[in-house]
Amino acid sequence: MNRLxxxxxxxxxxxxxxxxxxxxxxxxxxxxxxxEKTAESESYDPKRGLGKFSTVELGTSLDQAMAEKGLKVAExxxxxxxxxxxxxxxxxxxKGVTERRTPQWIMNFITNPDPMIDKDPELxxxxxxxxxxxxxxxxxxxxxxxxxxxxxxxxxxx
Length: 158
Description:
By secondary structure, this protein is mainly alpha-helical. It has helices spanning 2-18, 34-43, 64-77, 97-100, 103-111, 113-119, 121-130, 141-154. Helix 3 packs across helix 8 and helix 5 (103-111) crosses helix 8. The N and C termini lie far apart (92 Å).
């Protein structure tokens, strides 16, 4: 008799819990609304990119020690996909990048590539050519700054 009572209660529980209609308060907040998407795209600064770097102080001349460190980091993390020339390997060549992009944009991109690829129209066009997203290499600020200095050296800064 107890088993029959427990089975009936279980059945009633299932009926009550599964039979509810979704209320209007059950909204999906996981995808941004059109207004949120517009605000996000408007907040993207193509001269700065997305990330924590709003300004990057560069010396008037090259920091040779930092550039050498940047070369070493780049050899481990970057040169399997990028050449120092303008020739494309997997990703685009680096020649002239410091003349086309601001230092803060470069620093934000190499430390925060995914959100920038998602927002920057020029990066999206580049992605169509290269067919591979740049992976986040997990560079710390010092490594990223060293790579920037190496890029400056590559572009002829003395």
